[in-house]
Amino acid sequence: MTYANRMYGTEGSSALVPSYSSLTLLEGGAEKMNSRVARRGHGKEQQPQVTSRLDIVTVIVCTLLVAAGLFGALLASNASIEARVNSALSSLPAQEVVVESGDSVWGLASQHQVDGYSTAELAQWITAKNSLTTSNLQPGQILLVPASR
């Protein structure tokens, strides 16, 4: 049984004229269709793409270069930020305090807060300014701490 689907279209200024779409029935499924396509391709069958070792090495080298570049940019950014913080902290005025029993670098930093700086930055400043190699403070020890503004 043949079923024809009629579609109407216009040609120029003429009235509606029936037109038929051309349908082609392919028998044999995908395998037969692939062999026909291969024959139509001027006798050249498509070969599966094989990735060579050179391609793999190139991708690995490029990936490593990009990763190294990103890591270098991160280090440069961190160094720049640290240099700016150190420059700003070096300009802070200092005052002397006498260490009492139970005092710590962190405690002194939190007692002598400066606007715009965290307690961690101030504790690092106190450690560097006083050349402390340990966090143990001795009562009676004299330290430089940031002067509160």
The general outline is: rod-shaped
Order of helices and strands: EEHHEHHE
Q: How helical, in percent, are the residues?
A: 40-55%
Largest sheet: 2 strands, antiparallel
Overall radius of gyration: 40 Å
Low-pLDDT runs: none
Give the strand line-up of the largest sheet. Answer: 1-2
The number of helices is 4
Task: Provide a descriptive summary of the structure in words.
With 149 residues, this protein is an alpha+beta fold. Helix content is 46%, strand content 12%. The protein has helices at residues 29-40, 53-90, 105-111, 119-129; strands at 6-9, 17-20, 94-98, 142-146. The strands form two sheets. It has a two-stranded antiparallel ribbon with strand order 1-2. Strands 3-4 form a two-stranded antiparallel ribbon. α3 (105-111) packs across α4. 6% of the residues are buried.
Which features does this protein show?
single chain; two-stranded antiparallel sheet; alpha+beta; 46% helix; 4 strands; 149 residues
Please outline what is shown here.
The protein has 149 residues and is of the alpha+beta class.
Write the layout of secondary structure elements.
Elements: E1 6-9, E2 17-20, H1 29-40, H2 53-90, E3 94-98, H3 105-111, H4 119-129, E4 142-146
Antiparallel strand pairs: 1-2, 3-4
Helix pairs in contact: 3-4
